[in-house]
Structures are given as structure tokens and as C-alpha cells.
Amino acid sequence: MRYTMVSVLVVIMMVAAAPTYSHCGDRWRGEVGIEVVSESGSAFLNIPHQDFWKGGTDVQKKYLEARKGENYAIVIRNMTPERIGVVIAVDGRNIISGRKSNLGNNEDMYLVAGYENARYDGWRTDKETVHRFYFTDVADSYAMRTFGDSTAMGVIAVAVYREKEQFRPLYESRRQEGKPAAPSAEGAARGKAGAAQDEAAGTGFGDAQYSPTIRVAFEPERDPVQKILLKYEWREVLCRKGILDCRQEAKNRLWDEGEYAPYPPGYPGN
């Protein structure tokens, strides 16, 4: 990757002047949490589904209730003493580059310092701008409109990477490469072709928002220590699948009765 090569070359040239750090022991302490929050900061409802280990990676799967038309943000909570790299993909696309994501360690990622939280509000189009995430139909989603890609629709995915044992932090302004392609007429047509997925939810490309960044040298380990996958669905879909219990509560004979006594059948004037 171009950015990775730039960072590595700068690290090599600055070896003598840069301080050296190491892991806080070999054991991974604490964990990394994720919340999807509304514009007001309240968390969207999520329901645990599966939690298992795959190799050395803790994989967590959850369902999330999406609310159509609402902006949302992804909040990462680093409850460990180490800084971490996080690859974040929405609907299968990396939120920094827009490229198809496999959550690999060679992808663009954000860094979160130890014991800190970070909030990501949208698709990054340059070093100072993101376009807001919002819940929408598949045909209107950024992944479908721009790339015709529905292969990972309705999934917010985060892969958490530790840093290799020796690292030297360096900073440089993140240079702007090509922006992700803007939604096109051709892309919109592809979106209509996917309209059969009427019940599925997707993420749109919303209004621009100021969001400055810097480039930080970071060499991730080969495999993530944690993966968090959120499958977001409309409430009615979660109800139909039985993920949420949406049955109406049965009336209580004593609690729900009316306030006044009824007239008997056939009573005059009734």
C-alpha cells in the first residue's frame, strides 16, 4: 500500500532519533468494545448473538436495530493499556478508503490510544472531511450506489490489531489520494437492480462533516486479536426473525380494566 510504504520509509530514516516502546507484557489485557450511537449520543439497541474464538481471534457477533433515516456514528472503546489499530468496514467497504474490505492488516485503519474512546461519523473523503453514515434502504446505500456491491450489506465490522512489539511513533500529514468515486447514474441503476432486497438495511453517504486526521506510523501484527461484527436490521425484520420478542403483552384482567362499571346488556338508554 502506498501509505504503508511511506510510513515504513520514514521509520527507517528516523530510527536513531525515535524513542522505542514495547508491549505491556505478552498478554492481551482488557478488551475493545463498540457502540453504534445516534446523533444525540444514545446507543442503538444491540443483541448478542455469538461469541467464539477463531485461531487467536475473539469473534463477537451481534444484531443491531437500525432506524431508517437516522445518522449514526461508530464508537470504539479501547479498554486496554495499548494503542490499537482498528480496521472498520461498513457494508463491506473500508470507511477510510471505500475499498472492498476483508478486515486485513494491510488496509487503512484508525488508531485508538490506550484507555481512550474514538468516534467515527462517516465515510472519509479527504484528510479533513467525512460524509455522515445514515441508515437507509439497500438501493440508496453507498456500497450499492457507488460500487454495486451488496456482498456484505447490513454489517458493521471492526478488526482490532495490536502493534508489533517494537515501534517508533512518527507523524506526518495524511496526503490525499483519489477520493472514492461519487455516486453515478450507472451506480444508481445498479442500485435499482438490487431493490429486490427491500427488507435489508444499508448505510448511506450523507452530509459532509469536518473531521481532521494525521498519519501515524503503525505496524500491526499479522492477525487481529478481536473482531466485532454487527448485523443491523429494521425492527420489523428483527421481530419476524425472532431476534426481538415483539409480541404484544397479554392484557391483565385486573390491571387493564376500564375505570367505570359497564351498563348491563339491554339496559334502557344503553
Unreliable sequence segments: 1-22, 167-196
The main pleated sheet reads as:
7 strands, mixed
Q: What's the helix count?
A: 4
String of helices and strands = HEEEEEEEEEEHEEHEEEH
Q: Give the radius of gyration.
A: 24 Å
Tell me the β content: 25-35%
What is the CA–CA distance across the termini? Answer: 82 Å
The secondary-structure class comes to mainly beta
Domain count? 1
> Helix share of residues?
10-25%
Q: What would the average pLDDT be, to the nearest integer?
A: 80
State the shape. elongated
Number of strands: 15
Quaternary organisation: single chain
Produce the secondary structure layout.
Elements: H1 2-13, E1 32-38, E2 46-54, E3 57-66, E4 71-78, E5 84-90, E6 93-94, E7 110-112, E8 117-120, E9 122-126, E10 129-137, H2 142-147, E11 155-161, E12 171-172, H3 185-193, E13 201-210, E14 215-216, E15 226-234, H4 235-241
Parallel strand pairs: 3-15
Antiparallel strand pairs: 1-4, 2-3, 4-8, 4-10, 5-6, 5-7, 5-11, 9-10, 10-13, 11-15, 12-14
Write up this protein.
The protein is mainly β and 270 residues long. 13% of the residues lie in helices and 35% in strands. The strands form three sheets. Strands 2, 3, 5, 6, 7, 11 and 15 form a seven-stranded mixed beta sheet that branches. Strands 1, 4, 8, 9, 10 and 13 form a six-stranded antiparallel beta sheet that branches. Strands 12-14 form a two-stranded antiparallel sheet. The chain is elongated.
Give the structure's gist in a few sentences.
This protein has about 270 residues and is mostly beta strands. The protein has helices at about 1-15, 140-145, 185-195, 235-240, and strands at about 30-40, 45-55, 55-65, 70-80, 85-90, 95, 110, 115-120, 120-125, 130-135, 155-160, 170, 200-210, 215, 225-235.
